[in-house]
Design goal:
The protein is mostly helical. Helix content is 63%, strand content 3%. Strand 2 and strand 3 form a beta hairpin.
C-alpha cells in the first residue's frame, strides 16, 4: 500500500461521544459469559471507529444500549483498560474513561508485535511437510490474487480489501500455530486493526507494494525457508507501521519538540 495523505480519515471526530446504539443486545449472544459479550461488542465499536479516539466511555450508557446491568459492563471496561483500548483520566475525582487516542508510538509497537507473532506463524508454516505447504501456498496465492483484484476496483471497496488482507495473514497464523500463539494474536491484532481501519482509505491508492510483500512471504513458505518467511512477515508489518505513523498527527507535546 502506498503513502497518500488526504487531510483527515473518514472516522468519527475525536472527542465526540458516540453511543453504542447500533449494537445488538449482549443478551442475544449465544456463547460466552455476559462480561465477555460486552467486552467483545465494545471492543468491536472501538476497533471499527464507532467509538472515536478521545470519546468518553460512559458505563451507564453502554449498559442501557446493550440491555445489560452495569456489573458486566464494569468488568468489560476493566479488561479493555488493561489492554489499552480505554484510558482513565488522571487526577479526576471520579473514574472517567475515554477511548485511547491513536499515536505514532502505539502504531509502531502494536504492528511490530503483530509482525513478530505472525512471523512465528510463517516460520512454522515454512517447516510444514511439503504436501501441507503446497496446500497452504495455493490458498495464499489465491488470497493475494483476490487482494489485488479488489485493490484494482474503481472505486475501491475498502471493506473487501481489508477482509482479503486479514484472511491472507490469518491463514499464515492458523497453518501451524499452537493455542498460545493464536491466543496472543487474537489479543493484539484487534488493537492494530484500529489503526488499519481508521486510515485504510489513505493507504489504498497503490497496493502493489503489499502484493509484492505478500508474494515474498508466500514464496519463502513455499520453498521451506523458515528464516526468510519470518523476516518477510516482519518487514511487511514494519513497512505498514512506517506508513501509518506518517499519517497520524503529532501530539502537542511532540510538536513542541
Amino acid at each position: 500500500m502506498s503513502d497518500t495523505r488526504p487531510s483527515t480519515p473518514r472516522a468519527p471526530r475525536a472527542g465526540k461521544r458516540v453511543d453504542a446504539a447500533p449494537a445488538s443486545s449482549a443478551a442475544d449472544a449465544p456463547h460466552g459469559s455476559r462480561p465477555d459479550q460486552v467486552y467483545a461488542r465494545v471492543r468491536e465499536l472501538i476497533v471499527q471507529g464507532l467509538l472515536a479516539p478521545g470519546s468518553r466511555v460512559v458505563e451507564t450508557e453502554i449498559a442501557s444500549n446493550l440491555g445489560v446491568s452495569r456489573t458486566p459492563v464494569r468488568e468489560a471496561l476493566q479488561r479493555l483498560q488493561q489492554e489499552g483500548y480505554v484510558l482513565a483520566t488522571p487526577g479526576a475525582q471520579q473514574s472517567r474513561l475515554t477511548v485511547a487516542p491513536l499515536t505514532r508510538e502505539d502504531v509502531h509497537e502494536l504492528l511490530n508485535i503483530v509482525g513478530a507473532l505472525e512471523g512465528l506463524g510463517a516460520r512454522g508454516a515454512a517447516l510444514l511437510p511439503p504436501a501441507d505447504r503446497r496446500g497452504l501456498v495455493a490458498k495464499l496465492r489465491g488470497l493475494n490474487a483476490e487482494f489485488l483484484r479488489v485493490g484494482k476496483l474503481v472505486p475501491i471497496d475498502h471493506e473487501r480489501l481489508y477482509d482479503a488482507d486479514q484472511r491472507f495473514h490469518r491463514q499464515i497464523v492458523e497453518a501451524s500455530a499452537g493455542p498460545r500463539l493464536l491466543a496472543l494474536h487474537d489479543a493484539v491484532k484487534p488493537q492494530a486493526d484500529r489503526y488499519i481501519r481508521m486510515y485504510i482509505r489513505m493507504l489504498t491508492s497503490d497496493i502493489r507494494t503489499s502484493v509484492y510483500e505478500h508474494d515474498t512471504i508466500t514464496t519463502a513458505i513455499d520453498e521451506g525457508h523458515a528464516d526468510d518467511a519470518e523476516l518477510a512477515v516482519q518487514v511487511n508489518w514494519r513497512h505498514a507501521a512506517d506508513r501509518l505513523s506518517r499519517l497520524i498527527p503529532l501530539t502537542p507535546a511532540q510538536r513542541a519538540h
